[in-house]
Amino acid sequence: MSTVVLFEHPLNEKMRTWLRVEFLLNQLHETVPVSGSVSALAVFRIMGDLLDIFERGDMRTELLKELERQQQKLRAWLDVPGVDEQTIVSLRDRLKRQSTELMAAPRMGQQLREDRLIALVRQRLSIPGGCCSFDLPSLHIWLHQEQSLRDTQVNSWLASLMPLRNSLTLILDLIRQSGAFRHQTSLNGFYQDNAEGSDLLRLQLTLEDALYPQVSGHKSRYAIRFLPLDSERGEVPARLNFELACC
In what order do the strands lie in the sheet with 211-217? Predict the structure, then answer.
């Protein structure tokens, strides 16, 4: 059976940021528990990347706007004959609860920003080997604490990000479900079409194709060029079938 590989490409800056934050949050939860210096530095590096993103813009405002936009779309669906009203109302209530949770949460990343250990490690991450024991004795002793103490502190950091993660997960799920996959064919490794105000492209290839897509696009139009995984010996077929969804 073929292995399907899913690629996603944002069509605006807002979606680009959201996908990066989702990627970092997923990495963060995959890295815990912190059991040694390798997993510790991975956690601190990810949290530093998240703080860099938070400091570049007001992500909470954008998420609240999107939660409201999704509620408006659901209200419009209630006027469609034959729609499952119970499902629509339940989903709309979830969006309302998530808006309330996000608005009530502290400033995004505030707890991470105020933590002294995170700040110390963040300053040293750009220096090769800059987090070794003689550079950061505070990190060294922290890594020798009991696992339960370390887990409690790390879980507190993760909990401070839950309003963000819950909102982002709900929004991205709705956006992804808004577009159905359709069969498409590229000619000589190239495909282009109108984006029609979409936020996200989702593209499925099989691992056996040994190809990957290079996408350029924005909210009105996009182009996809397929390139061989083996740049020296790989070939791109004259006609390539793939699945594409505009969300």
Answer: 4-10, 200-206, 239-246, 182-187, 190-194, 221-228, 211-217
Copy the structure tokens of residue 27.
């990495």
Name residue 28's amino acid.
L
Which residue's entry shows tokens 């956690």? 43
pLDDT digits (tens, 9 = 90+) for 98-137: 999 999 999 999 999 999 999 999 999 999 999 999 999 9
Query: In DSSP terms, which residues pair with 222 in a beta bridge?
Result: 193, 217
- Which pair of tokens denotes residue 184? 């498409």
CA 115, 120, 123, 128 dihedral sign is negative
Digit-coded pLDDT (tens) for 196-240: 889 999 999 999 999 999 999 877 899 999 999 988 888 899 999
pTM for the predicted model, two decimal places: 0.93
What are the residues whose beta carbons fall under 8 Å from the beta carbon of 202, sequence distance 6 or more?
A: 6, 7, 8, 176, 179, 181, 244, 245, 247
Instruction: Give the residue from 83, 74, 22 showing the smallest Cα distance to 50.
Output: 22
The identity of residue 214, as a single letter, is Q
